[in-house]
Predict the 3D structure of the following.
Amino acid sequence: MFEDEEENIPAISQALNISLERQEYLRKERLGKISVRMTQILLLVLGLVLWEIMADAKIIDPFITSQPSRIVKTIVQLYKEGVLFYHIGITCLETIVGFTLGTLLGTFLAVILWWSKFISKVAEPYLVILNSLPKIALGPVFLVWIGAGPASIIVMTLAISLIVTILEVLNGFWGIDQEKIKLVQTFGGNKFQVLTKVVLPASFPTIINALKINVGLSWVGVIVGEFLVSKAGLGYLIIYGGQVFKLDLVMTSVIILGVAAAIMYQGVVYLERLLVKNNDLNY
Amino acid sequence: MNAVEVHNISMKYQSLNGEIAALTNIGFSVQDGEFVSIVGPSGCGKSTLLSIISGLLSPSSGTVWLSGEKVTGTSKKIGYMLQKDHLFNWRTIWQNVMLGLEIRKAVTQEAKERARILLKTYGLYEFKNRYPDQLSGGMRQRAALIRTLVTDPQILLLDEAFSALDYQTRLAVNDDIYSIIKKENRTAILVTHDISESISMADRIIVLSKRPGMVKNIHEIKLSCSNRTPLTCREAPEFRHYFQEIWKELDVHV
């Protein structure tokens, strides 16, 4: 999310003995960056402190709003009970399975639609309707069909991410320069070779991008799924805490969720840099 | 026997809005080792003609013969150069050069050796592990030509192969590619809308009419310059003469 590549530029410029003007420019840039980061941290600390003080002074009711110290206590308690990482683990696992499966299956289906003009034309209205349908409405259906368990949750995440992936990747396939395809054909390449030599490698950045979108969608699917069916996971903790009016548990779970989601997103961004390097270098 | 013989080719494109005649009764032949250029106003079906010769498209009527063999699909005799180099960003120069061989499942030690020799001869061997964006436009075009030559085609089809380059690079690449084609002793058909380019490179120029394209005239290019390269022969006194004549035939109205 944050670019930190430029961090080492001032050091390099000093080593190269770059003009004063440039040093001044770089110093200003650096200063601007630091002040943004400082303000961000300050806002966070200020918010937390204000929340804590207002709850302590009973200006807001900590029973309803919880408060930072109670959240810390809840985390410690969950950890001591040995269930903290159990719940986090289950939710993360379901999410990872969800977006991996969503991306792979979506890409596979996109390949089929790309391969056959006929199938893609037939599928078009169904895709449009499925795409606009709020997939969460299908939750109870999955619950009845598949049963109250992780399988239902993963199907829920697939329902949310699959259609978007298909459309996104298929658009990527169709957007490939026809001349690149023609090049493979001039060497006598068949359709399968067009797929493996051009279409898939050229769409690799698109597929990774779909993966990134799916990470976000999978969190939605998993939490909704857990709301509906589960006996474990962060979504379960949120729903359970709400039902027994333990807002501390709800807030704690939401905050852990936020952190886990951010870390996972960063992980995928890192993965993208690693994988798309060869591709991206050359644009 | 002629390297390429085109007999009475006609091509119609079908669409729901109607039928478009792209080419009518095109006929010409190209000798072994000859460099022929096809010029014509835009939309006259030049590129369609090349696609038909290469076997990528089948014509509505007529036949193409390559050294006496009837064209029914893509042929190993043909090497096709497109407007842009279309080197794949995700492949190194070496991997790009091997693309055609991979597709034809012809990656042999011999073929690899041929690729190495071509890369060395045309100054790209040190760059074989680089990615295309690390090369200049001219080098990329050369790499694209090597990718074609490695499959050992007898006939090269150049479809506006230089028009994506800026003017100066283009003149340099013209010289470059021309000398490579002559040195490797290949037959070439160049499609272009650039009259000067076609005069400077071709032994013969076929002028097509507006759509539907027909052969309007064929010029035998004889330039009085010793040691012919595309750049030097632009100085030849006849150059301007050919230019005027072809320009008139193209009948351009803006």
Confidence is low (pLDDT under 50) at residues 1-7 of chain A. Chain A touches chain B through 22 residues (CB under 8 Å). Residues 5-60 of chain A form one domain. Chain A is about 85% helix and 0% strand.
